Amino acid sequence: MGRLSRLDRRIFERVAAAEPPGVQFVLPRLTRAANHGRLWFGTAGALAAFGGRSGTRAAGRGIAALALASFTTNTVIKYAASRQRPLIDAVPLARRLTRQPLTSSFPSGHSASAAAFATAVAMESGRLGAAVVPVAAAVAFSRIYVGVHYPADVLVGCALGVGAALATGRVWPRRPQPAQFVHHRVPVPALPDGEGLVVVVNDQAGGGGTSADRLREVLPKAEIVTCDAGDDGPRDLGELLDDAAARAAERGGALGVCGGDGTVNAAASRAADHGVPLAVFPGGTLNHFALDTGIETFEDTAAAVRSGDAIAVDLGRIRPAGGSTGPATHFLNTFSLGIYPDVVRLREALEPLERRIGKWPVAALSLARVLRTARPLQVELNGRPHKLWLLFAGNGLYSPEGFAPSHRTHLDDGLLDVRTVTGDKRFARTRVVVAALTGTLARSHVYSAARLPRLRVSGLGEGSTLAYDGEAAPAPASLVLDKRRDRLSVYRPDPGPPLL
To answer: What is the pLDDT of residue 490?
Structure first.
């Protein structure tokens, strides 16, 4: 240990004596800019504002990793370790900070935060990571340059930061790049400049005019239909989609839709009914389905429409059974029973509050309220009784397995990804949350998963609620979950060889 300590000090002294050109006025300012994470919060804001969807994800993961790294180094390890700061006699006066830090030198909190943020950004986008990593490296080196840390402090801080960023993947799994998806091509018509494409824009949530203008720019020959209010009030979205799908079929073209997952769900069943391909333009808050197909922007879809590139997608189906009546309902993403439909229903009731404080705070508030008052659901699955907090069925296998569902790389495997949280064990809700956060959900005794082509659900009590693709609805006493036989064709740009 003495030899390593001497080496550490020797390197510090050499850096103090060095006079690399062009950095004397840059590194001290950079290290001050990184105080309290200000540099990284500002960078996150820029990524979210100008980096597109990948920039928004990178900013969110970067802030989460920074918070974890800062807590670990500054609140935990610094108080457990006790290392004096370097003597700064050898550091030129012009480099020194106005106020010298008084906490333990080991490890470097600035370096941990910088490495955590840069690694997290690179996990979401290699392009953005390539721009952020050199800045983070400069911040880490600046801590030695201005004389407040030994090299070992910086190296350990960087290692902790990288570890914090990787740890975010346990709770927030990374979405794979489009080239990693395994999708199957299907023949669809190429529509130059969108000729033959009828796009319905759901602008009831706001921003529809902007979306329609963007669509006219990327596909000038497409027919754009919006839900603008007429003389008799807003036009019904379902009727607009029915008319648009019929016109697209007559022209040998395609149905387009701009909106969130609920709107895309409504368009998908109509496209399948009329035998036309579907073009999805992501216009919602989360756009789970669009992201699972590899579509992030309007330009992605427009390119696929012009070139005639498309993939096959399963349509999940909810059919009343056992004497229950009603039409079949379809889902592109997920189906659930238990506490999640209650969360969706409460969130809808709190929509005025959501417009003031945002989607995620209202979602967290809804979840907290439901968990406080909810009771397990008594239900039969394929004839066997169960007591459940949650039944989840994904339209295709969600990844990662043994974890909270995040994303899909296959969209036409013909199977349902069924996951349940049992309600007949003590502290089941708490145990499943802890297991999810620690990455041990696959081994939890309150969690189970199976892949099935069909699932029969019966014994649902009166007033039960189901949810599909973020929408809540009354549940019949019995139902069957399966897949529609005729698959949907969805325009999606060709990313390269992994498509089959």
So the answer is: 96
